[in-house]
Design brief:
One of its GO terms (biological process) is nucleoside triphosphate catabolic process. By secondary structure, this protein is an alpha+beta fold. Helix content is 29%, strand content 25%. A hairpin with a 2-residue loop joins strand 3 and strand 4.
Length: 202
């Protein structure tokens, strides 16, 4: 298996909290890397590959804590109406909108009168003590709502409706929404790789 707790290589507190919660659903302990060392400034992310960005974050922390299990992730949004926007650069392209509400209103207005279809993708890289590296991939498929709805969530949860559903993620309970989350799916895929011993060395 691997050493627990998994240390999450991110300075994004909301993302870290969500990953901790998702791992807990699989009975796995996870926490911020900042519980082990002081807060660090990560190298700038690339602009072409989710996988490479996740690997960069994980290995950056793992090299400083080589006896620990370290997880890096990268996520992005693919908007059907604008296939050349967002993607790996989602967070950078939305950086001018300071709050979640600002970002959500921008996206709602952006797709007004166009396809509301949206995909979210997460790549996870887990580095463990003998230099094995595992990769997990998770994808959310759904649509944008026409307005923010619900209070149980953060980020885009108030405007994302899973395929086949009518409620946004933020209108669902944790139990209802967890199976739809791209990070949950990525963790499930990652743990399948661990169970099947599918890894590479670095």
């Amino acid at each position: 298996m691997f050493k627990q707790p998994i240390l999450i290589a991110s300075n994004n507190l909301d993302k870290t909290a969500e990953l901790i919660k998702c791992f807990k659903d699989f009975k796995i302990s996870a926490e911020s890397y900042q519980n082990a060392i002081t807060r660090l400034h990560f190298p700038n992310e690339g602009t072409t590959s989710y996988l490479n960005n996740a690997r960069q974050k994980a290995t950056f922390i793992f090299k400083k804590l080589p006896t620990e299990s370290v997880l890096g992730d990268d996520s992005g949004m693919i908007v059907a109406a604008y296939p050349d926007k967002f993607g790996v650069q989602t967070s950078r392209q939305l950086s001018n909108y300071p709050s979640d509400a600002d970002k959500n209103h921008y996206l709602i207005n952006l797709v007004n009168g166009r396809s509301r279809q949206v995909t979210l993708r997460t790549d996870l890289i887990l580095c463990v003590a003998d230099h094995r590296v595992y990769h997990g991939l998770g994808v959310f498929e759904g649509t944008f709502s026409t307005a923010e709805r619900g209070n149980n969530g953060y980020g885009f949860d108030k405007i994302l409706i899973p395929l086949g559903e009518t409620q946004t993620l933020a209108e669902m309970t944790d139990t209802e929404k967890t199976p739809y989350l791209h990070r949950t799916k990525a963790i499930q895929n990652l743990l399948e790789k661990v169970a099947q011993n599918e890894y590479e060395h670095f």
